[in-house]
Every structure is written in structure tokens, then in C-alpha cells.
Amino acid sequence: MRLSTRLSTPVLSAAVGLGLTAAVLGAVPASAAPAPVAPAAPFAGYNGSGEEAKANKAFFDAVLKSVAEKRAANPTSAAAVTVVYNASAAPTFSAQIARSTSIWNSSVSNVKLQAGTSGASFTYREGNDSRGSYASTDGHGRGYIFLDYRQNQQYDSTRVTAHETGHVLGLPDHYSGPCSELMSGGGPGTSCTNANPNAAERARVDQLWINGLAKALAKVNQDR
């Protein structure tokens, strides 16, 4: 999303992140007015930007192209397409990634996510980044989802992971949306723990993977 996006230090617990304050105030004289507590700076991704929106779209297009090339090389009659991911570089978030995969696979029918170590169209990574969590691509069918430690302490970690995975499946950020909308990311605040896409988001993903894949497959065959 950069959930409106990203988290820091290996995930200890959501409670730790929620308890963080922007600054620690020292004692002040009784006559002095209490110093205001500066709010924590928002993650860059949660603010959204045209550049980020383009990056998310590029990631989806790259994954779509990668899947289309594989399908063209090995035609199959299966209606749903499989997108393989490699999560070995994000061991801290293995449970969240597995949960996110289960959520998406039970929510949509035209595309399925599958863990694997070879032939992956994207990977998951973890670490510290002031921008938060985000999706990134090199534009050539390879990309990764970065999961930031601190952001995943402040926001519900499964929601962060499912949100970023939503970009891989073609959904853009919509930070002004309600908590019930997965792609609203961090917009509803840290109290939002919903990690499930709503009906409109599920329908959009299914539509993208029927129409988008058909166009990508036609282009791949045409270029051969």
C-alpha cells in the first residue's frame, strides 16, 4: 500500500507498535505550559502519490505478462491462472503471508496464489524502510512486496500483507475508503484490522484476470 503503508524492527507484537509515541517528553516546570506531543509522521505510502499508483500498476502489468508468457508456453484448459510467489526472504511474516494467500484464494476464482521457489512471478521481502510496506517491480515480470517491520507493528500485519498483495492482483490504493475496503490501507487508522477484500474488490480482481490475461496472452502470441 505502502498501507497508506509500511512497518520497523522485527515484528514483536501489534501492541508494541500501537504503544509507540512520537517523542518522550522531559519534566517541565509547573508554571510552564505542557509541551505538545508531536504526532507520529505518517508513512509516505499511506499518503498516496501518482508515482506510487504508477508503480503499483506496473507491478500488476509485469506479473500479468509473466503469467501470460508461461501460459503461452504451456497451454492449459484451467480457467484460473496460478501466480507463484517466493516468501523465503520474509520469514518473519510467514504466517501473515500464508493467511493473506488463503484470504485471496478463497475470495476470487480467476486467479490463485501459490508458494514456490522456482518460476516465481514475485517475492516477499522484509526489513526497515521509512516509506513503509510497498510493491515494486523491474517491469520485466519480476517484482517484490516489501514488508516494513515498524508499520506491521502499528497496523494489523495481515491487513498490510493482504493489501500489498492486492496490488499484485491489480487493485489500486484508495485511502479515503472505509475499513471494510481492504485497499483503503492505513486510511481508517491503526484500529482497522479487516484483512478481507470487499465484494467490489473481489469482483474487480476476477474481472482483471479474465480480461487482462486474455489481452496479455493475445499480445504474447502475436509477438512470437
User: How would you characterize the largest beta sheet?
Assistant: 5 strands, mixed
CATH topology of the domain at 81-214: Collagenase (Catalytic Domain)
Task: Look at the structure and give the CATH class of the domain at 81-214.
Answer: Alpha Beta
Total beta strand runs = 5
Strand order of the largest sheet: 2-1-3-5-4
Rg (C-alpha, Å):
19 Å
CATH architecture of the domain at 81-214: 3-Layer(aba) Sandwich
Quickly count the helices. Answer: 7
State the end-to-end CA separation: 35 Å
CATH superfamily of the domain at 81-214: Collagenase (Catalytic Domain)
Protein name: Extracellular small neutral protease
GO cellular component, one term: extracellular region
EC number: 3.4.24.77
Binding site for Zn(2+): 163, 167, 173
